[in-house]
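The authors assume throughout that readers already know how a fold can be written as discrete tokens. A single example would do more here than another paragraph of explanation. An entry of this sort, consisting of the sequence and the corresponding backbone structure tokens, reads as follows:
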Amino acid sequence: MRTPIIAANWKMNTNVAEAIELVKAMKKKLNSISGVEKVLCPPFISLTTVGELIKGTSIELGAQNMYFERSGAFTGEISPLMLKGLCRYVILGHSERRALFGDTDQIINKKLRAAIESGLIPILCVGESLKQNEAGETIEVVTKQVNAAFEGIDSPEGTVIAYEPIWAIGTGKAASGDQANAISGMIRSAVAKLYGDPVAGELRIQYGGSVNSANMAEFISQPDIDGALVGGASLKSVEFTGIIEQTAKIKKAG
């Protein structure tokens, strides 16, 4: 059975003091919930501080991005070697990175390869725009993103894939559980074609896009959805702990 994984993507929110306050507000509750892997992904400035706060707990730490080079004249960038030993996970290919910062499929492929080679576990984001969705291009677009991300990579090495329809991120308009599950199943099939059924069967797939404590049950009840990449709701301690509580309860019952 795949262990569900819920990751908090705080994006460009919280300074160090606010990050401390948020972690303290939910650390005890999060640590007490078993059967779910919990990951906090704060801004770079708070990685060390949050890491110290959750040390010795069942909570994992993740970064929101990284560059594919190990070192060099890349002002403002963070390398996989800087993250190694500091955190376990790293989000790659988020739609905001693709749309606003020029992360092409080729760049994401390089980042994915660098993360895996450095022993980090990538959370690879894929998803279609509203225009692509309405044109019936979801399967084509997402399959292309998956294939391009893993181009030339021998093994996904535990990579988590987050299906995040761009039209649902931060809009309050989530996909339905059935919709998200259908695309998650398609992603699993695409991975099976690359690496075989056993690897695809172990792959964890998250849903992301306006996830909250009110709709999480609809997603985590689906057979091909193994968790969530949570944005806005992860900045509210009660909301985020509620999402994880529901996940634990439903998976335990199932």
